[in-house]
């Protein structure tokens, strides 16, 4: 796995072996960012289920100013820290070592891009989006990118957001919500 494009493009990323995380393939990651960007002019990104940190690192590589990564698994946290170190831009990343629900209680400021790629067995996307909206953590032009198993049907609308784009890539489905 690697960073697909941007200032860190081509650099290798480490992933966690085993079943606790499910890394987004380079192909799907490239497709996601081509769908929503492909590049950004600043902003803050929240990666609520970081795994290896690949999606947040890709967002910063493509122009986001700052990333907040949330991961509860200790082994995944170590991988994220190694991947962040590889960027040599550690100041652009904050790793919160906790589960998503605890992080949602503690987050502050506004996010311009939110990446929701929970483990397939724990679909909490609807609840997470509602909490982010209720806590006023989302900018007016925020994009919410949800990656799920292709069999998962997310609602057309969640809180004040509606589906903007949706595509299936192999076993994964990517759904993008906007206001």
TrEMBL record:
Pfam families: Cons_hypoth95. GO terms for biological process: rRNA methylation. The keyword tRNA-binding does not apply. GO terms for molecular function: methyltransferase activity; nucleic acid binding. Keywords: Methyltransferase, Transferase. It comes from the Bacteria. Signal peptide: none annotated. This is 16S rRNA (Guanine(966)-N(2))-methyltransferase RsmD. The lineage of its organism: Bacteria, Bacillati, Bacillota, Bacilli, Lactobacillales.
